[in-house]
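anyone else get weird line breaks when pasting these?? whatever heres mine. first is seq + tokens for prot A
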Amino acid sequence: MTRSLLIQLALAASLCSAASAQSPASRQDQIDCRPDAMKFCASHVGKPDEMRSCLAQNKAKLSDACRKVVEARGG
């Protein structure tokens, strides 16, 4: 697998795991947040708690779609 694909898979897993306390992240949630997660929180891929925290800390910088996902998940 290419490095990019591995990163995308790890990111998807992180987003799913980060939301698991409430409900699984939908495919649309993952699509909405993937660019922002890679831009602001790439070092936290594969670390769900750190990813959730990073996205919440960067909420003001996130796209509207991802910000809504983060807020809906308590961030």
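and prot B, same format (seq, then tokens)
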Amino acid sequence: MTATVRLEDEGRVARVVLSHPARLNAMSRAMWRELREVFQRIQAGSWRCAVLEGEGAAFCAGGDIAEYPGFRFQEASLREFHEGDVWGGLQAVLDCEVPVVAAIRGACMGAGLEIASCCDIRLAAASARFGAPIAKLGFPMAPREAALVAGAAGELTARELLLEGGVLEAVEMKQRGFLHDVVEEEQLAARVRLSVDRITALAPQAARLNKRTLRSISELNHGLARTDRAQAATKNIADAYRYAPGAEHREGIAAFLEKRKPAF
């Protein structure tokens, strides 16, 4: 089955479906580019709300690791993947002024956690599991992606997920402030509908203006305008992908694809 990001027009609501069910909706490079295109369409359209979900039993289990050997071991192509494909998709969701509701069930790992972090309202089934155990694959989370997750989930949670490879249940993530609500699997659709109905009943222009204001507050709180921090972030990104040809990186991905334990 083709991996794609599908946009479904439901009148006032745009439904965005991450569809790669054979791999629990793992994001391919093409899907990252489609995510950007879809949210640019939503931004330019007249929808009042967007719902972002995964096809079937999972939200998104991460990146499509089967593609990784083709580009991850060269610094330039690895940088282009994260700074072009991945961040392009995430930035489009962040820039979208239409309220975005995440409907999360099953696996929400790595790339899925990053995508969920871009959404305004995060609702989950009790079955949902959250993590970013990419150190098992021998590589770190890219700087801007890590900052995004830390901003949404909290720095302590980000440290646990990245440094311990922890996987947390939905109830725990709600207690830590990442999720707005957790319901039983069979109640998720109704809970999403309740949120959508509340959003679409309000003035759409006010929603867009509120999102602009909230973005400005977030940028102010995180000090993104400060020159010293901006310069430090730029340097961090410049150095971030030098691990591309490293032995740990190659071993982690090879071990996953060969279905064995990595020897770090």
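btw re prot B: The chain has a mean pLDDT of 93. Residues 75-95 form the longest helix (21 residues).
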